[in-house]
Design brief:
Order of helices and strands: HHHEHEHH
Number of helices: 6
Helix content: over 70%
Largest sheet: 2 strands, antiparallel
Radius of gyration: 20 Å
Strand content: under 5%
Length: about 160
C-alpha cells in the first residue's frame, strides 16, 4: 500500500507516530474533558501530535548532539506559554471557597502531553505509554483523594458546630 502511494518506510513510521501521539494525547485529554476544564480533548491531542511532529521532522536536521536538546527546550518553552494561558487568579475565590489560583493542573497536563509527544517522536513508545498512564492515574487519584479529604473535613466541621 505504501509503495502505491509513493511513501517510504520512514513516511509510514512517521504517520504511525502521529496516530500513537494522538491516542496518548486523547487518554489525558479525556480526563480533562470529563472534568470540563478549559483545555480538553482536542487541545491535548493537538499538543501531543504537534510535539511529535516537530521531533519527527526535526530528526532529519539534527547536526550536533545538542540539536535535539534545543528542539526539546523550544517545545517545552512554547508549551509553557500555552499552559500559562490556562492559569488565572480568581478574585471571587474567597466567596466561593475555591483556591484563588486556577488552571495549574491543566497547564501541567498540557506540558506533559507535549513531553509524551516528544517521546513518541523519538520512538520511545514504552516510555510514552507509561508517562500517559502515570499522568492519567495522577489526575484521577489526586482528584479522588481530594474529594475524600473534603468529605472528611466537612464532617469534622459539622461535628464542631
Amino acid at each position: 500500500m505504501a509503495e502505491i502511494l509513493g511513501m517510504s518506510s520512514e513516511d509510514v513510521i512517521a504517520i504511525l507516530k502521529l496516530f500513537i501521539a494522538a491516542a496518548l494525547g486523547a487518554i489525558v485529554g479525556l480526563e480533562r474533558e470529563y472534568r470540563h476544564k478549559p483545555a480538553g480533548l482536542r487541545t491535548h491531542i493537538l499538543v501531543c501530535i504537534a510535539s511529535c511532529l516537530f521531533v519527527t521532522i526535526g530528526s532529519g536536521f539534527y547536526t550536533t548532539p545538542d540539536s535535539f536538546a534545543r528542539m526539546a527546550a523550544a517545545i517545552a518553552t512554547g508549551l509553557g506559554f500555552i499552559g500559562a494561558g490556562n492559569i488565572f487568579v480568581s478574585t471571587q475565590a474567597e466567596k466561593t471557597g475555591d483556591h484563588p489560583v486556577q488552571g495549574l493542573t491543566t497547564a501541567a497536563s498540557i506540558w506533559m502531553v507535549g513531553a509524551i509527544g516528544v517521546c513518541v517522536g523519538m520512538g520511545k513508545y514504552f516510555l510514552a505509554v507509561v508517562a500517559s498512564l502515570l499522568t492519567v492515574s495522577t489526575l484521577l487519584w489526586i482528584s479522588w483523594d481530594i474529594k475524600i479529604e473534603a468529605k472528611a473535613n466537612g464532617k469534622k466541621r459539622e461535628e464542631k458546630k
